[in-house]
Hints:
Shape: extended
Order of helices and strands: HHEEHH
Structural class: alpha+beta
Strand content: 5-15%
Distance between the termini: 63 Å
Strand order of the largest sheet: 1-2
Amino acid sequence: xxxxxxxxxxxxxxxxxxxxxxxxxxxxxxxxxxxxxxxxxxxxxxxxxxxxxxxxxxxxxxxxxxxxxxxxxxxxxxxxxxxxxxxxxxxxxxxxxxxxxxxxxxxxxxxxxxxxxxxxxxxxxxxxxxxxx
Length: 133
């Protein structure tokens, strides 16, 4: 069952049984058991691989069009990311696929949270350095 069919199923379920949590739970369990019966297993998010594409562009001057200078691809399992970074990438992908959040919006949220962490660490270090004098 594709991600779109699951998304359609959950949207329809929420529209028809929003105020009936017992029925929603029963329908979700039925969907889960049907998926298990037809596919032979439940999806394991840790086993879902992803690809990372990197495209480099260049242009000769400001009025010329952008041209592709290099393209590279790596599989997610071959990236050698630390656990935190791998978790962040997988959660971004999962939210983009299972929810209707555009990936670019999720990426902006992630970069914003990273910036807040960096600025917080910088503020603490600056405060420690100033307190030494």
